[in-house]
Specification:
Distance between the termini: 12 Å
Number of helices: 16
Strand content: under 5%
Order of helices and strands: HHHHHHHHHHHHHHHH
Shape: globular
Radius of gyration: 22 Å
Number of strands: 0
Helix content: over 70%
Length: 462
């Protein structure tokens, strides 16, 4: 367990530092100018799709390649980095074409291009972070990311306070990305066994072909996660994008802690090592992970649902009234994302990425259909419904497949969560009548805390 908790703790500390700085920056931005906040959120949405194009699934493939090649892994890293530079060039050209096609105003167009380039540079830096993760040096990754976040968002906050134009403020992403890139490269270069090699074109071609399935998976996922905001921009405008982005930033931030840190950067390398050598252990780890993710998801969703009328005004200010009820709509995405991401990484460790791609393509078709149908009728509720239903469809397919192979969700877990949730609802219902609001909500969380304490004691005995 310490092999999981220690690297997770390093990454969590860096993540919390970055998320804290990011939250301060975007809250400040939202309070100063809601339209500019909406433009930045739209740009980040496009940037996330561009990032998937730059990384092209190479990071997932690199985990297995580094483990297999050992001391010769430097050659694979060099090839991956060279490929990403080429892909970044193509992705930026595609971004420029998209922005021109959409006929955005000049300021929005430049913000999207500059943000996209900065996010794309993060894709180059992630190559070195994969090497650190496989080497078990998440502590070094955490230090680099913390420094990069401090420099990047520090620049953003200073320029925002000085009132400089948004096209200069957006360069905060360049500062953060370049710091990650340089810091990661210098750190990996010092690691034993990671010497740089001149990229070979034939090897690069094979690497590109092998990683392409992961790339398509990432691109499809990025598109169906962000497509609704582009429909929303067309039917509701920048202000509607801002109202939707405020609660989605909270939900996505919470799910990213699990998918990016615990599952991707810690558990996925472990799953890859164990698959094919110790399936009993991978099943045990998967069941334990599913149990703790489920226990964490329910109180998070409850808290966001009942406290949305306080969370949104406190963070984003009084102008985000629609964001209050949107947060309630989006809260179920947390449990859906937790379980789906676990199932997805397990499928990739099983070498079932082609089937996973089919599931994602089904989700994309469902998403585009929902966006085309519901967003024109009701822009904000439609955008929320489209993403939650899409994630539900994809999660249903992936979890059912992994369930057949590994039985990650047991009857005991379903029974325990049903009883815990029922007791929590009863306590909340009674508490609302007789107690102040915060005390009633705290009382409802007590069964989940008790279950966590009990499960932790049982885990120690095993």
């Amino acid at each position: 367990m310490s092999a999981i908790l220690r690297p997770l703790a390093y990454l969590l500390s860096a993540r919390w530092a970055r998320e804290g700085l990011q939250a301060v920056f975007f809250i400040y931005l939202a309070r100063k100018s809601a339209p500019t906040y909406g433009e930045f959120m739209l740009s980040l949405g496009l940037g996330s799709i561009l990032l998937m194009g730059v990384e092209f699934g190479l990071n997932y493939h690199l985990v297995g390649e580094i483990i297999r090649k050992g001391e010769k892994a430097g050659e694979t890293l060099s090839q991956a980095l060279a490929l990403k530079v080429c892909l970044l060039t193509v992705a930026l050209a595609g971004t420029w074409r998209f922005v021109s096609w959409q006929n955005y105003e000049a300021q929005l167009a430049w913000i999207m291009l500059l943000m996209g380039a900065g996010v794309g540079l993060e894709g180059l830096a992630s190559t070195f972070f994969v090497a650190l993760q496989v080497a078990g040096r998440q502590d070094l990754e955490g230090k680099i990311r913390t420094v990069a976040a401090a420099l990047g968002f520090g620049y953003g906050l200073i320029t925002l306070a000085l009132g400089v134009p948004p096209i200069l403020i957006v360069l905060f992403k360049w500062v953060e990305a370049l710091t990650n890139l340089v810091g990661g490269a210098l750190t990996v270069r010092r690691l034993q066994g990671f010497s740089w090699r001149r990229p070979n074109l034939e090897s690069m071609r094979r690497l590109l072909w092998t990683a392409s399935i992961f790339a398509i998976i990432e691109l499809v996922a990025a598109i169906y996660n962000k497509a609704n905001i582009f429909f929303l921009q067309n039917h509701g405008g920048v202000n509607a994008v801002a109202q939707y982005s405020a609660p989605w930033q909270i939900v996505e931030g919470l799910t990213a802690l699990v998918s990016n840190l615990l599952l991707h950067q810690v558990m996925f390398p472990i799953f890859v090592r164990l698959w094919g050598t110790d399936q009993e252990e991978i099943s045990r780890l998967a069941r334990a992970t599913a149990r703790w993710l489920t226990l964490a998801a329910f109180p998070l969703m409850f808290f966001l649902f009942v406290e949305s009328d306080r969370i949104i005004p406190l963070i984003f200010g009084p102008r985000f009234q629609d964001a209050v009820w949107l947060l309630k709509y989006l809260a179920p995405a947390i449990i859906i994302a937790f379980l789906h991401n676990l199932a997805g990484f397990l499928m990739m460790s099983m070498d079932r990425q082609r089937l996973l791609l089919l599931f994602y393509l089904g989700g994309l078709l469902a998403n585009l259909g929902l966006c085309s149908w519901v967003i024109p009728l009701a822009p904000l509720p439609g955008a929320a419904a489209a993403i939650v239903l899409t994630k539900g469809v994809v999660a249903l397919m992936t979890v059912l497949y992994v369930q057949r192979r590994l039985q990650i969700i047991t009857l005991a877990l379903l029974r325990d969560m049903a009883v815990i949730s029922l007791v929590a609802l009863i306590l909340y219902g009674v508490g609302k009548i007789h107690l102040p609001r915060l005390l009633a909500e705290s009382l409802a969380l007590a069964p989940f805390l008790w279950a966590g304490w009990r499960w932790r004691r049982l885990d120690k005995r095993q």
